[in-house]
DNA sequence: AACAGCCTCAACCGCCGATGC
DNA sequence: AGCATCGGCGGTTGAGGCTGT
């Protein structure tokens, strides 16, 4: 037997709200509050609406100090950055953008930013004062010139300066920003814990750090890994996570150290060609096994896309600045790392074509 | 002007966790 | 402990408006 419906669907009005309904709901809540019971609210007011519908209408539309449309570039950046790091947790993202609702951001992402990332939009957006798509960057795929012809890298040609910034997409030692949440993560590994056998757990950890799994690469360094999550949760700060095979003396070890709000990847061992010597850096490790990285991004980036999501983690991602921000993620105040040019990089993907594609 | 296709976004749906009984 | 209820969340839908032909 299923769960009882929250309201009598037969006697509940659906569809767009009328101004009268809005006025009723708004005036009541402004006078009396929600009373902590949305389900009972419509009956008190005399609205033939589901309580959940009232809640949604209030939160997404009637609530004071809401902004609609006109996302600024800075908001774009924040959304991009947070989406890359935490995925589609719209309520969390919305908490960082005063006046924005999760629904708003979700819609904006799905209709604009996602396409902006891919450069799929066909025409200039309508009625968007702050929204301005510029085609200022070209992105090419080319062989890196660092002496390793086997590695591919993205070349950003920003602002048509012709100054190609060829970069290895995931350098051997890269410092990535730590995004502020969740401040506690299931930490999948400790040195003394023999139960480190859950690849999904480490995948999740690495995903939090911004990795990608395509499933296209088998990675021997992950073979036989013990990735069982430890009991409970550990504070995901100022810790080191050693990613490597405990069973192989010659295994490459990727060290993910989290200190002072920075994540550092480093690797050692004679199998490190998988990690950096061939130019793919730790990301190759990250590409080891099937993915649950923010599915929308995964979907946007084909599995054979050289370098995976590195274009989201280019140099600019490293050169970050901090935006101080209050957050709802916990009781402590924390910081967002604002990737200054992420969105412009996204814009730069306009006109990008995949290998073999015209 | 008419039509078709595209785009946006408000609203709905269903699931899940928390809470109370 | 088990169940019912509620709030909250993310995914999806569809009506209406806009644009291109």
From TrEMBL:
Residue ranges occupied by any Myb-like domain in the UniProt entry: 9-62, 63-113
Lineage: Eukaryota, Viridiplantae, Streptophyta, Embryophyta, Tracheophyta
Signal peptide range in chain numbering: none
Subcellular compartments: Nucleus
The UniProt record lists the keyword Transcription regulation: yes
GO cellular component, one term: nucleus
Protein name stated in the entry: Uncharacterized protein
Keyword Cell division belongs to the record: no
Top-level taxon in the UniProt lineage: Eukaryota
Region (Disordered): 119-163
Primary location recorded for the protein, binned into one broad class: nucleus
Sequence ranges of Polar residues compositional bias: 129-153
CDD domains listed in its UniProt record: SANT
Pfam families associated with the record: Myb_DNA-binding
PANTHER family: MYB-LIKE DNA-BINDING DOMAIN CONTAINING PROTEIN, EXPRESSED (PTHR48000:SF67), OS09G0431300 PROTEIN (PTHR48000)
PROSITE patterns, per the entry: HTH_MYB, MYB_LIKE
Residues covered by the HTH myb-type domain: 9-62, 63-117
MF terms (GO), sorted A to Z: DNA binding
């Amino acid at each position: 037997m299923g769960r009882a419906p929250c309201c009598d669907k037969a006697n509940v009005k659906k569809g767009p709200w009328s101004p009268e309904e809005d006025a009723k709901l708004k005036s009541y809540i402004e006078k009396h509050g929600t009373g902590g019971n949305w389900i009972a609210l419509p009956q008190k007011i005399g609205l033939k609406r589901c309580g959940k519908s009232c809640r949604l209408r209030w939160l997404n539309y009637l609530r004071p100090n809401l902004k609609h449309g006109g996302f600024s570039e800075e908001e774009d950046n924040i959304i991009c950055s947070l989406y890359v790091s935490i995925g589609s947790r719209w309520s969390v993202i919305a908490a960082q953008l005063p006046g924005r609702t999760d629904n708003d951001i979700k819609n904006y992402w799905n209709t604009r930013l996602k396409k902006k990332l891919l450069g799929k939009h066909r025409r200039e957006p309508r009625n968007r004062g702050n929204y301005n798509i510029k085609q200022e960057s070209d992105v090419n795929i080319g062989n890196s010139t660092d002496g390793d012809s086997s590695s591919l890298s993205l070349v950003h040609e920003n602002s048509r300066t012709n100054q190609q910034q060829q970069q290895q997409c995931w350098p051997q030692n890269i410092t990535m920003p730590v995004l502020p949440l969740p401040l506690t993560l299931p930490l999948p590994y400790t040195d003394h814990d023999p139960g480190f056998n859950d690849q999904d757990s480490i995948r999740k950890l690495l995903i939090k750090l911004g990795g990608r799994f395509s499933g296209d690469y088998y990675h021997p360094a992950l073979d036989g890994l013990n990735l069982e999550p430890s009991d409970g949760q550990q504070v995901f700060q100022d810790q080191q996570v050693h990613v490597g095979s405990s069973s192989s003396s010659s295994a490459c070890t990727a060290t993910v150290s989290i200190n002072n709000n920075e994540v550092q990847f480093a690797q050692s061992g004679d199998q490190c060609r998988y990690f950096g010597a061939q130019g793919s850096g730790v990301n190759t490790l990250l590409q080891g096994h099937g993915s649950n990285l923010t599915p929308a991004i995964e979907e946007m980036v084909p599995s054979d896309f050289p370098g995976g999501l590195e274009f989201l983690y280019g140099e600019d991602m490293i050169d970050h600045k901090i935006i101080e921000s209050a957050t709802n993620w916990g009781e402590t105040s924390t910081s967002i790392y604002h990737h200054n040019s992420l969105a412009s990089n996204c814009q730069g993907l306009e006109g990008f074509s995949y290998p073999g594609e015209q």
